[in-house]
Fold this sequence. Notes:
alpha+beta, three-stranded antiparallel beta sheet
Amino acid sequence: xxxKTNDLLQGALELLILRTLQNESRHGWGILKRIEQISKDxxxxxxxxxxxxxxxxxxxxxxxxxxxxxxxxRKAKYYSLxxxxxxxxxxxxxxxxxxxRAVGLxxxxx
Length: 110
């Protein structure tokens, strides 16, 4: 597959969001930019995918939100992990680690 990765496996976006919020609260745009930065612009998350995922995570109790001021002094909704979100992140990282190793083996030996 050439170019940037625009489509993520189901569940991967929520995992990336949780991991991005692990050490710092961020607003939606900040989450998008951080994922792009860490992936060296290989992953592009569209707002139309991000905000429904944030809603699901918040509804599930994995993240919470509060309003604050962004870097340019605009009102923004900041998201942070809850204890349940920290636990889910730990579980999801283990699951995705196993998945990645299995896919790697198949790609190497198939």
